[in-house]
Amino acid sequence: MNRRNFFNQAKLLSIPIISSTIAAPILMADHNIIIPNDSIGKILKDEKADIFLPGAYQKALKSLKYKLKMVQRHVGYGNFNILSFDDMLFIGRNYSKIGRFTKLELEFIESIFYYDPKVHGFFGDRITYSLTDKIYKKALHKVPRTGHYLYKGKTLHTYNQMKKDIGDSIILTSGVRSVVKQLKLFVDKLYSSKANLSLASRSIAPPAFTYHSIGDFDIGKKGFGYANFTSRFALTPEFKEMKKLKYIDMRYTVNNKDGVRYEPWHIKII
Ligand SMILES: [Zn+2]
Q1: Cα 221 to ligand 1 centre (Å)
Q2: What distance in angstroms lies between residue 61's CA and the mean position of ligand 1's atoms?
Q3: pTM to 2 decimals?
Q4: Residue 27, phi then psi, degrees to nearest 5
Q5: If you measure from the C-alpha of residue 57 to the centroid of ligand 1, how many angstroms do you get, rounded to a whole number?
């Protein structure tokens, strides 16, 4: 079977809502979508099944994760944030330590870019329509000491205004992200989520579905580290100050319609 159709098939199967009468693991006839035994408890509890990455792509997950890490190491953290798909391929091809992206890896990337993630419970809007879209540096401002970029115009203006109003204790924790950067974040999350697409997409949008590629950004408290990406950020004085600012909107509020977890640090611009 053509692997490109995996996700389309998943869409047709419309698996997510499963009645609580299910007592056995679900194994689709073509073995593409497997809901293992250990998630049955969860099905009964939530009355919905998490969707897992098709088996063939699970095989590509580890090697892809490694290659993306090596590409990032090669170009540097800052440059990787805005790296295009074509540049990623070029680097793989030309540096033997990284190596060409394999056919299976490329099919996986294509699928995860062009599919409809509603099949596993992610309801955000598609933001990027072409895998090969490029981000042009002249539209960006590199924010010193962060490794991140912001779009000039409304995004940068908002960030600067926040710094003025809240103070220097806030820091940009993530700005512009290319398809490749979002792909890396999603692949890493998918890997740590043991190929559970539903779980991964509750905290990281799939590659074509992030507002970071058109202007949203994440803010944190200096020195707060990883906690900036947890609900603990909402307890900081910085967040409390932020809430007072009339020009600031949060993208992912509690129980947002996109199916994404609460993200008090994510600033909605577009
Ligand atoms: Zn964000």
Answers
A1: 14
A2: 23
A3: 0.83
A4: -130, 110
A5: 26
